[in-house]
Structures are given as C-alpha cells and as structure tokens.
Amino acid sequence: MSARPPGFRLGKVLATSFTGTLTERRGDPVERIPTPQRLIDWLAVNGLAVESCTTAQLERARELRESIHAAATATAIQDPLPAPAVQVINDCSIQGRAAAVLTPERNRQWQLSSASRVEDALSVIAADAISIIAGERDGKLALCASPTCRAAFFDTSQSRTRRWCDMNTCGNRQKKARFNANQRTTADGKAG
Ligand SMILES: [Zn+2]
C-alpha cells in the first residue's frame, strides 16, 4: 500500500497558500510538495497548470517558498526584509513570462509562455508575494498563533484580529485544546 501524499491547504491568497505547502514549521514539519508531481498538482489547483516539472524546478520553487515565508514573517513582525529572500523573490518575478488574460466570464486567468515553464508559474507567485509584502492590497500580514505553526498569513478581516492561518486546522486544534483543558478542570473539581 502506498501512502497518500499530504493534501493541500488552500487559502484565498496565492503567495501564502504557497508558503502553506510546508506546515507545522515549528513542530513536525509536513512537506506538502514532496515530489515534482505534487508541485504540478498544486499549480494546477491554483490556475497555473504546467505539464512537467524537474527536480531542479521543484528545488527552485521551494527556495522561492522559503524566501516568501522569510520576507512575510519579517513584515508581520516589522523587521527589515532579509536581503537574500528579496533577491530570490525578485529573480523569480523577473524570470517569468506569464500574462494575465481576461475570459468572457470576466475572470482573470494566467497564461504561461509554455506548458513546461514552471518559472512562469513561480513568477506569478512571486509577484503576488510582492504585492502583499509591499502593502498594496487591503489586509495585513500576521503570524499564526499556534506555537507549532507560526505560518505567515494575510489577514483581510475587518478588525485585522485573525489569529490562525487556518480555522479548520490550527484554529480548531486550539479550540479543542481549550475544551479539553476545561473538561479536566471540571473533572478535577468534582474529584476534589
Ligand atoms: Zn497555523
């Protein structure tokens, strides 16, 4: 029986969905794009379909991912941007040849210069990261409150008080932990 690869956590923001392909960074990290095929799958789900991906392209993608994570984290805690991360983000942005195209249904789609150009897809992700780190979009970068996660996410809530990268995973786990702690307190109370 072959183990199924870990599923994807998909958010509304391309760049932070991409950094979310490595989760539990401060705990037991889960690599969600362990193979070139899984990067192909992730890109397809995010409207950036490519036909092939080499190991070198996967490595480049992970390098971009970690650079976005570093720059987004620095932004969330108001630290200066790490220069090597900025360099990788900019290089990836420059090296791509993707074009935005409009569909008759008024959707924007990305057209890559060729089906084997992972670099084009990465440039779209890099440009998305640039727009949120530069503060161009309505929202704020923040870090997940889960101590084993600390993922950078883009908070678009009106009050800008979102605490978790993902309500269904980190948020839920926190709620359950609090519930269990309460249960224990109640049980202890009864025993004593
Ligand atoms: Zn989280």
Describe the structure in brief.
About 50% of the residues lie in helices and about 10% in strands. The chain is mostly helical and about 190 residues long.
Describe the model.
With 192 residues, this protein is mainly alpha-helical. The chain has a domain at 14-139: Jann2411-like domain (Jann2411-like fold, Orthogonal Bundle), CATH 1.10.3300.10. Helices cover 48% and strands 10% of the residues. The chain has six helices and six strands; from the N terminus they run αββαααββαββα. The strands form three sheets. Strands 1-2 form a two-stranded antiparallel ribbon. β5 (140-143) and β6 form a beta hairpin. It starts with 13 loop residues before the first helix and ends with a helix. The model has no long low-confidence stretch (mean pLDDT 92). Bound molecules: zinc ion. Zinc ion (ZN) binds next to loops.
Secondary-structure map:
Blueprint: H1 14-19, E1 22-23, E2 30-31, H2 36-45, H3 55-76, H4 83-95, E3 99-102, E4 108-111, H5 118-133, E5 140-143, E6 152-155, H6 167-191
Antiparallel strand pairs: 1-2, 3-4, 5-6
Pfam family, one: zf-CGNR
Protein name: CGNR zinc finger domain-containing protein
Domain Zinc finger CGNR: 141-181
Q: Nearest-angstrom radius of gyration?
A: 19 Å
Largest sheet features: 2 strands, antiparallel
CATH architecture label of the domain at 14-139? Orthogonal Bundle
- The helix/strand class is mainly alpha
Global geometry: globular
Instruction: Give the helices and strands as they follow along the chain.
Output: HEEHHHEEHEEH
CATH topology of the domain at 14-139: Jann2411-like fold
- CATH classification class of the domain at 14-139: Mainly Alpha
The percent range for strand residues is 5-15%
Strand order of the largest sheet: 1-2
Strands, count? 6
* Share of helix, binned: 40-55%
- Within CATH, the superfamily of the domain at 14-139 carries the name Jann2411-like domain
Number of separate helices? 6
Bound molecules: zinc ion
- Runs with pLDDT <50, length 5+? none
Distance between the termini: 50 Å
Q: What is the overall pLDDT average?
A: 92
Domain Zinc finger CGNR: 141-181
Pfam families: ABATE, zf-CGNR
Protein name: CGNR zinc finger domain-containing protein
InterPro entries: ABATE, ABATE_dom_sf, Znf_CGNR
